[in-house]
Amino acid sequence: ETTDGGDTYTKNVETTSDVTLPTPTKDGYDFGGWYENSGFTGSAVTAVPEGTEGGKTYYAQWTCETPVFDIKIKDENPVVFSGESIELTVVGSNIATDATYQWYKKNGESYDELAGETTDKLTIAEATVNDAGNYKCKVTNGTCSAENNYTVKMYHIKGLTDNWTTPFEFEKSG
């Protein structure tokens, strides 16, 4: 007997009245009902009818939930200076515990996959102006996925000297 997130429900029964089938849950998915066939044709079954005898198998129909998320920057401060670290984090809902992540950085008109960046966080230590730009994360729940972008703007101090009476000039990239 499998009901908690499984794909089938099998039970030997001898019913003297209708037996309601359980409603299982599965992280990252919506339950679409029990069916008498693996093709999910016909109507969903909600109960084993009175008078049923012997082994009966029902098939669970699952529809993945599309992840809904934003990308947040550490400390919610969009201003990053050269030499500081950048930490982008996926924050959202409908994200399964076994969801997969992939980060990308825009390069011209397309995005390059950032090898090894496969968690809900992207950290760039000691960032430089070359790290400015548009980043994207793809989150996948089973067969459903969603993407979101975040633009990192970098600042560095131009012509910094020990003379603190000189005003700072900032150059922005990104």
What does it look like?
The protein is mainly beta and about 170 residues long. Helix content is about 0%, strand content about 55%. It is built from no helices and 14 strands. The chain has strands spanning about 10-15, 20, 30-35, 45-50, 55-65, 70-75, 80, 85-95, 100-105, 110-115, 120-125, 135-140, 145-160, 170-174. Residues about 160-174 have low confidence and may be disordered.
Q: Average pLDDT value?
A: 81
Order of SSEs, N→C?
EEEEEEEEEEEEEE
Through-space gap between termini: 56 Å
Low-confidence stretches: 161-174
Number of helices: 0
**Apparent shape:** rod-shaped
Attribute tags:
174 residues, mainly beta, six-stranded mixed sheet, rod-shaped, disordered C terminus
Please outline what is shown here.
The protein has 174 residues and is mainly beta. Helices cover 0% and strands 53% of the residues.
